[in-house]
Write a structure and sequence with these properties.
Rossmann fold; 2 domains; binds magnesium ion; two-stranded antiparallel sheet; 11% strand; Haloacid dehalogenase
Length: 316
């Protein structure tokens, strides 16, 4: 009989694989990573932004101001710099993402709130990480944040190919396939995200949504896509055009400072790391003005602590 028992080594390995915390609830939490579980606006997003622009400049053989303009164009047309780079320049997505997430001092850049691991552990239900970032980066951030053991699985951008196309969030087919593979009924899943446009995209799919607003930052006034003019070249045509674009956008922002513009600015700044931000690093990043809970958001919280407390109160 004893021969059928698993070896102590196998038991230890199984325990290591089993996610810690309360997995008894019927809910399956699909957690985003950046600006949901940790503060990526502080150092990581600006660094990714610089690395992406440098990558585009290298591939196109152009200067960084031109690369910034190209990124804005691709971001507006395809929703991500990466998708434009694949389509027009045939770049290898793995190579692009690796280059954009290379941080020699990642441990110093990850900022988490105290007690994060405990709050996640106490949240009842299975937990899966679903991030548009690459696998190695996601796992490294989870390790540094001390929460790797809270998740049964990490679904990173490498796992988001559907029928030969890269389909990151907020693609519906990708998430539907993920739920089917993990045998999760949509009504049991809660997508926890800072990017409100992602939550909006999944409205009507049966998936519940939780919007985490605590790490959202923006730059004043509300539009991040401004290419700064190089001071040494104020008089050339490109800079004049940039200045004209800047003043047009600023005027537009002043005119349309309502709810929709606020929501868009929050989305753009937080919308993954592909959102090109060409401001210099010394531009102050201020807390975003967060609009009221839209109808397609089921729960709006500032932090994991608040989410856990809310769930405990409602008992769901
Ligand atoms: Mg995010």
């Amino acid at each position: 009989m004893s021969s059928s028992l698993p070896s102590p080594r196998r038991v230890r390995a199984r325990l290591r694989r089993r996610p810690a915390g309360d997995t008894s609830g019927g809910t399956v939490w699909l957690f985003d990573l950046d600006n949901t579980l940790h503060d990526a606006s502080h150092a990581i997003f600006p660094a990714i932004n610089r690395l992406m622009t440098a990558y585009v400049a290298r591939v196109l053989g152009c200067d960084e101001a031109t690369a910034s303009r190209v990124r804005v164009d691709y971001w507006q047309r395809y929703g991500a710099t990466l998708l434009g780079m694949i389509r027009h320049h045939g770049v290898d997505p793995a190579d692009f993402l690796r280059a954009a997430h290379e941080f020699p001092a990642l441990a110093e850049m990850v900022r988490v709130r105290r007690g994060l691991a405990a709050h996640l552990r106490r949240l009842p239900g299975r937990k899966i990480l679903v991030t548009n970032a690459p696998q190695d980066y996601a796992r490294a951030v989870l390790e540094i944040a001390g929460i790797r053991h809270c998740f049964e699985r990490v679904v990173a951008i490498e796992q988001m190919w559907v029928h030969g196309h890269l389909r990151p969030k907020p693609d519906r087919r990708m998430l539907r396939r993920l739920l089917a593979q993990a045998r999760i009924a949509p009504h049991r899943a809660v997508l926890v995200e800072d990017t409100v446009s992602h939550l909006k995209r999944y409205a009507g799919t049966g998936i519940r949504t939780a919007w985490v607003t605590g790490y959202l930052r923006t730059v004043a006034p509300s539009r991040p896509h401004v290419v700064p003019a190089a001071p040494a070249a104020v008089h050339d045509d490109g800079s004049r055009r940039d200045a004209a674009v800047r003043s047009t956008l600023a005027a537009e922002d002043r005119r349309r400072a309502g709810h929709a513009v606020q929501e868009r600015s929050v989305t753009l700044v937080a919308a993954e790391t592909q959102a090109p931000q060409a401001q210099p690093d010394n531009v102050p990043r201020v807390r975003a003005r967060v609009p009221n809970r839209p109808a397609y958001v089921d729960i709006k919280v500032q932090s994991m602590h608040q989410l856990q407390r809310r769930m405990r109160r409602t008992g769901s």
